[in-house]
Amino acid sequence: MSWRQLFRRRYWDAERMEEMESFLEHETQENLTRGMSPVEARRRAYVRFGNPQKVREEIWRMNSIEPLQRLMSDLRYALRSLLHNPGYTVLAILTLGLGIGANTAIFTVIDGVLLRPLPYAQQGRIVHVVQTEQHSGQQDIGLSVQDYLDYRSQQHVFTKFAEYHSMLFTLLGTKTPQRVVTGVVSSQFFDVLGVKPVLGRLFTSADETRSAAPVLVLSYVFWQKQFGGDRSVIGRTFAMNDRVHTVIGVLPPLPDYPDANDVYMPVSSCPYRMDPMTIRDRDARMVTAYGRLKPGVSLREADAELSLIAGRMVKAWPKSYRDARDFATHATPVKQELTHAASPTFFALLCASGLVLLLACVNLASLALSRQMRRSRETAIRLATGAGRWDVIRQVLTESLLVALAGAGIGLGIAAGGSRLLETWAARMTPLAGGIHPDFRVLLFGVCSSLVAGLLFAILPAVLAYRTPLTAVNDGGERAAGGEGSTRARNVLVALQVALSFVLLIAAGLMMRSFYNLLSVDPGFRPAHVLSMQLDLNWTKYKKQTAQLEFFHQILDRAEAMPGVESASISWMAPLNSNMSPINGPVHVAGQPVRAGVPAPVVDFETASPDYFRVLGIRLLAGRSFLEIDGPKAPHVVLVNARMAHEYWPHQNAIGQRIQPGQSHDWWRVVGVVGDVREYGLNKAPSATVYVPLDQNPIQNAHLLVKTRSSPLLMANTIAAMIHQIDPQQPVTQVRTLEQMRAAQLGTPRVTATLLSLFALVALFITIVGVNGTVALAVARRSREIGIRIALGATRENILRVVLSQGMKPVAAGLMAGAVVSLFATHAMAHMIFGLTPDDPLTFVSIGILFLTVALVSCVTPARRAMAIDPMKTLRDQ
Q1: Structurally, how many domains does the chain consist of?
Q2: Same domain (yes/no): 405, 501
Q3: Which interval of the chain is the signal sequence (predicted)?
Q4: Which of 45, 401, 425, 536 could cross-link with 751 by S-S, CB 3.0 to 4.6 Å?
Q5: Is 209 left (phi over 0), alpha (psi -120 to 50) or beta?
Q6: Are residues 347 and 451 located together in one domain of the fold?
Q7: Which pLDDT belongs to residue 636?
Q8: Whole-angstrom Cα distance, residue 545 to residue 696?
Q9: Residue (of 109, 103, 515) closest to 346 by Cα position
Q10: 821 exposure class (CB count in 10 Å sphere: 0-12, 13-18, 19+)
Q11: Residue 615 contacts residue 631 (beta carbons within 8 Å)
């Protein structure tokens, strides 16, 4: 049979009807002429022709594709059946939609961040060369220029090898001075990444020479934002560091890696990088290195050669590598570096959403099993009237797949909205979040998930339909099909739902308690009414320390004279600012000599003006704070935090003690002890910290901290205008309040805890619906038994006890299984929680009590229905 015949069936059917009607009419007329009555004439015509409807059906069947016809018939029957039971249908579609939506939304994030290839050629060959010092706790200490030159000249495993570091410079030539994040790179950097420009050209070895004219390459984002994608930007000139730079190229859209750079310059254009002191100083580790592995070279081979080169460096310059036993070099794949911070959280959420979908399937299997038990008489009648057992199985599968596809539609809608919210959250952990968007892969995942889910929850009802006995026609069906095996299956499904929900609730409970622990942690300072502004000085304009100090003192004097300002300070960092890295280094403590071969202790150094501690509300525990007399020519003084005082002078008074930074020949005297501050994160313990007066240690990159009497942001423009009065070319960036910085620290754990809690609540709802439905079905099946018990003298309390016992037994079994699984599963998220252990007893007990209470309440309604059964009606029915 051809497709042409299939699609012309209705036309031919009408044509055959006309022919049959014409024949019947002709036969009727013939019979009338023979003297028959009209009724008898028509009857004899039908007798001769046969049943017209049967003939039509046979012709229709001959012009049909049988499998397709059978499928359409199954779909129509399934649709009628589902519409006949709207409560089950709506609940099933919504349950599955929530599970598929959660999974698809998380998959959208994982696909955009972890599964998609990077926009670099042969990404697997690009590595970051990392030097570590375990004794200082630093996993990446960076490279000095000399380190980089040694690796470059001695390596044989890379086809391309490049250096990189990022700095802030002022770009002049736009409408207003722009403080731009500048990537300073060697000429092979873009060759290592394997990227090509969308406009112009990239750097060559000629651009790297000292005599080369300064040039710039723009990032795609900066080109679009600052110049609106104007292609004539190539050849334009801009002033930077008192030199004229020419734009030679524009990069394609790329992740913000290694940093969110606005522009790139060759190393020859960077005044700091080309400073002879920077080039010679092997301890000035301010660059990083990237390489492209040669074809056939493995990561292990690269690590071995880098370690060999590092060993030669340690032997040649032992003073620059304080402890060779703790110094190591290795190569890290760029893909791994871009995703390592986000992967554990994404994996945890994927597991949680997967559990929700599995739970939805288990719940739907329980609902579908109960529904099939109620339909067992209908199934038996179909079997008795000629339907095959495969026919009834096919019907169950068709209904399940219809529910699954409808759930997929709802789930994809949920995923489309959820992925937009998740993109903002994921951007805090990886620069690859910009690639998150639903596409054909996501659509395919959602549809495939729904089809697999539909098949999963159809298995048990299909088996029950296959095993339905023909005797179910006479004995009510439900009892015949719903024997002990079906009851056990439903109880197992309920226990499985409870176990899965309990695991999710425990994970959500731990994350929520961890979040509240972070929320209540004392950061060591008072963030209220404090405004932070980043001030990065022009490297050439403020090269002298006297110029730096004069500029900062003018800002402080004018800021403190402004109405509404209580005090102001200058410091290297602002607390909780994730955009800045701490300055740390070795320190020698007077009276505590370091043994040979043992590295000197490493502490953090913070530069601060006298009012720094007053602005932040950091407590002075002993001694004094910085004073105006602690100037450039005064004796060197420092303050230390409580942790350092406790570690280095546990049984002594820290005041008056002396320390010597590793690169200094002077001894600095401790004049005060202040409280500990969580500088680098609310979840990170305070480090041993030395505070140095601004006048004795001037800095070029700084933060202005202003304590205000009213809302700090209302004064931001006024303070920025004051700074521009002093220096019109000075950019003011990162204008935020400390409360905003604290909120940003809490952002990721808040969203993670919220998502897990939402998954857990959905799981709890699905489980309670399943428990309630199972108990209600059990009551309906045992209504005769319960009525007889009541007639024989059982009290209402006895009936309540029986029903609650039957409902709570699988719940208790599921809770015990879930508790065991949770004890193992939660250890995988130990790194994500703060202030409690993965097996926290309070969380386990609280969630267990909550679950038992909610499950008990869900059993009450069917139990009350059982208590209300009329025994007389039951006996009459018997």
Answers
A1: 5
A2: no
A3: none
A4: 425
A5: beta
A6: yes
A7: 92
A8: 10
A9: 109
A10: middle
A11: no
Please provide the DSSP assignment of 459-484 as one string: HHHHHHHHT--GGGGTS-SHHHHSSH
For tokens 């700090």, name the residue.
Answer: 712
Q: Which amino acid is at 179?
A: R
Alpha carbon distances (Å) from 550 to 157, 168, 546, 701, 769: 50, 21, 6, 15, 71
How much of the chain exceeds pLDDT 70, in percent?
87
Structure-token pair, residue 462: 């299909």
End-to-end CA distance of the chain: 56
Contact between residue 181 and residue 169 where contact means Cβ atoms under 8 Å apart: no
Report the interhelical angle of 484-520 vs 841-867 (nearest 10°): 140
Torsion sign (Cα): 435, 438, 444, 449? positive
| Residues 351 and 396 placed together within one structural domain of the fold | yes
* Average pLDDT value for the chain: 82
Q: For residue 805, how many other CB atoms are within 10 A of its CB?
A: 10
- The helices-and-strands tally (H runs, E runs) of the chain is 27, 21
- Number of Cβ atoms within 10 Å of the Cβ of 859: 24
Using omega within 30 degrees of 0 as the cis cutoff, is the peptide bond preceding 258 cis?
yes
pTM: 0.75
Query: Is pLDDT of 717 > 50?
Result: yes
Say if residue 666 is in the same domain as residue 535: yes
390 and 469 co-located in one domain: yes
Tokens coding 634: 């005064």
Position 384 confidence tier, pLDDT thresholds 50, 70, 90: confident
Q: Is residue 85 in a domain?
A: yes
Dist. CA 462–CA 400, nearest whole Å: 10
Q: Which residue has the tokens 């900066």?
A: 222
- 83 and 225 inside one domain: no
- At 3 the pLDDT is 46
DSSP characters over 484-546: HHHHHHHHHHHHHHHHHHHHHHHHHHHHHHHHHHHHH---SS--TTEEEEEEE--TTTT-SHH
Q: Which of residues 664, 681, 709 is at a domain's end?
A: 709
Kindly state the tokens that stand for 349: 């959420």
Task: Indicate the Cα dihedral angle 598, 604, 605, 610, nearest 10°.
Answer: -140
**Boundary-marking domain end, from 262, 296, 325:** 325
Q: Tell me which amino acid residue 589 is.
A: V
- Residue pLDDT, tens place only, 817-868: 989 998 888 888 888 888 888 888 999 999 989 888 888 888 877 777 777 6
Sequence-ordered list of residues with C-beta below 8 angstroms from that of 631, at least 6 positions apart, any chain: 695, 696
Statement: residue 2 has pLDDT above 50:
no
pLDDT tier, 58 (very low <50, low <70, confident <90, very high otherwise)? low
Instruction: Answer yes or no: do 146 and 225 share one domain.
Output: yes
Cα–Cα distance, 549 to 632 (Å, whole number): 10
Reduced to 3 states (helix: H, G, I; strand: E, B; else coil), residue 583 is: strand
Residues 539 and 676 in one domain: yes
**How many C-beta atoms lie closer than 10 Å to residue 44's C-beta?**
16
Q: How crowded is residue 324: how many other Cβ atoms within 10 Å of its Cβ? A: 15
717 lies in some domain: no
Structural domain for 630, as ranges: 530-709
Tokens 């003297």 belong to 35
Q: Residue 334 falls within a domain, yes or no?
A: no
